[in-house]
Design a protein that fits this description.
33% of the residues lie in helices and 21% in strands. The protein is α/β, with parallel strands linked by helices and 431 residues long. The radius of gyration is 22 Å and the shape is globular. Bound molecules: iron/sulfur cluster (SF4). The site of iron/sulfur cluster has 10 residues, from helix 6.
Length: 431
């Protein structure tokens, strides 16, 4: 009798990639996605990057228990790694699995596991795809090529949860990209916790740009997109390669966090406001149409009004196309947890609101630039829920809605951008 499973994923692209791998591995062992059937096993792949993420992880666990009262409940991911005792308090959780054993969950399902030891996160191995997904659910699958981080920014729990930086070997990355391409996909997203550190610990050591050159020559997948990359590691070589390659997407997502030098220093971020500014201008000079996204952390301890304005004006003046805004969340175990000069919650909320409005305006301005232009989109396999239209992404990450039949799903097609509505929704016409 087949075992039916559900996987609920919270958090970052790396978690998404690991969930895809888990799903593939479960399927290769004869298990099936539950869909509308009752699940026998529920896996919740959690996140703990902020207090809110931990809370949402607990909600997701409770929801799975409520909807599947007979199922075996397996909790994994960063929250399981960092706070197993909090999860243990939730009645009916069967297993808590840290990162070390995450990819062994498919084997563990038929055995008694209960609570795995989640200590010693810093020495974790690179755990990745042991069975490459043969039927990716996403139009643009995410491949984790790097895990962990050695930087220890003072607010961040991730290095404690995911351990030191480690990378997937170059040839394995290339083979995985070829496998994704052979399965009919046109785009792959290369993701890491600290992507710019890719390859540094491999023997012989290598770098992200060397990897990209290798993958571009060894594969013929139409699009390669990079997930978030740190400002100090987005080198001129990578920018030049992206500007010259048709296949490397003109899209960079760069965590800024703050535009104030004293806050950056307190955060232990290895760059300054002016370095960030030069980087964005350098990208824009050679790739004026590139999407440049930025993460901002609002309300870090000691962030005065003046420091916040430094962030706000920097973002406002730079050619940044969209923002991801996060409120500061004190994570126990990180240095910033005990920093003085905490910013009041209502002030943090107001700063987030202002930044989000700014981000919306910048995104709208970016999209407007492309009205009447011809541009290629990769059509997603899911229709837009609100309009029922097909949706596709351009290389520079503009979601475009088009009226078309299902035969265009997963195809690269040319469209003309016709309009951007008041909510920032972009509409195009197939050419
Ligand atoms: S670079 Fe900083 S923010 Fe990013 S994962 Fe590492 S410690 Fe966290």
């Amino acid at each position: 009798m087949s075992i039916y499973y559900t996987i609920t994923t919270l958090g970052c692209k790396v978690n998404q990639s690991e969930s895809e791998s888990l799903a593939a591995s479960l399927k290769s062992r004869g298990m099936s996605e539950a869909g509308s059937a009752t699940a026998d096993v529920c896996i919740i792949n959690t996140c703990t990057v902020t207090q809110k993420a931990s809370m949402q992880s607990r909600q997701a666990i409770r929801r799975s228990i409520r909807l599947n009262p007979q199922a075996r409940i397996i909790v994994t991911g960063c929250y399981a790694q960092m706070q197993p005792e909090q999860i243990r308090r939730i009645d009916k959780v069967d297993d808590i699995i840290g990162h070390r054993a995450k990819m062994r969950i498919p084997d563990l399902i038929k055995t008694e596991v209960a609570n795995e030891d989640t200590s010693a996160a810093l020495e974790l191995p690179f755990c990745n795809i042991e069975a490459l997904p043969a039927d990716f659910s996403r139009t643009r699958p995410v491949l984790k090529i790097q895990d962990g981080c050695n930087t220890f920014c003072t607010y961040c729990i991730v290095p404690y949860a995911r351990g030191r930086s480690r990378s997937m070997p170059v040839k394995d990355v290339s083979d995985a990209v070829n496998a994704v391409h052979s399965s009919g996909k046109r785009e792959i997203v290369l993701a890491g916790i600290h992507l710019g550190c890719y390859g540094q610990e491999l023997t012989p050591s290598t770098s992200l740009v060397e990897l990209l050159n290798y993958v571009l020559s060894d594969t013929s997948i139409e699009r390669i997109r990079l997930s978030s990359i740190e400002p100090a590691e987005l080198t001129s070589d990578i920018i030049t390669l992206a500007s010259e390659s048709e296949r490397l997407c003109s899209h960079f997502h760069i965590p800024l966090q703050s535009g104030d030098d004293s806050i950056l220093e307190r955060m232990h971020r290895p760059y300054t406001r002016s370095m960030f500014s030069s980087l964005i201008r350098q990208i824009h000079a050679v790739m004026p149409d590139a999407a440049i996204g930025a993460d901002i952390l609002a309300g870090f301890p000691g962030e005065t009004e003046a420091a916040f304005e430094n962030t706000f004006t920097l973002v406002e003046e730079l050619p940044i196309s969209y923002l991801h805004v996060f409120p500061f969340s004190a994570r126990k175990g990180t240095p910033a947890y005990t920093f003085p000069d905490k910013v009041a919650d209502n002030v943090i909320k107001a700063r987030c609101r202002r930044l989000r409005e700014l981000g919306k305006r910048k995104k709208n301005e970016f999209y407007q630039k492309f009205i009447h232009q011809k541009i290629e989109i990769l059509v997603e396999s899911q229709r837009d829920r609100r309009t029922g239209l097909l949706k596709g992404f351009t290389s520079n990450y503009i979601p475009v809605l088009v009226q078309a039949g299902d035969e265009l799903k997963n195809k690269l097609v040319m469209v003309r951008i016709e309009r951007v509505d008041a909510d920032g929704i972009v509409f195009g016409r197939i050419l």
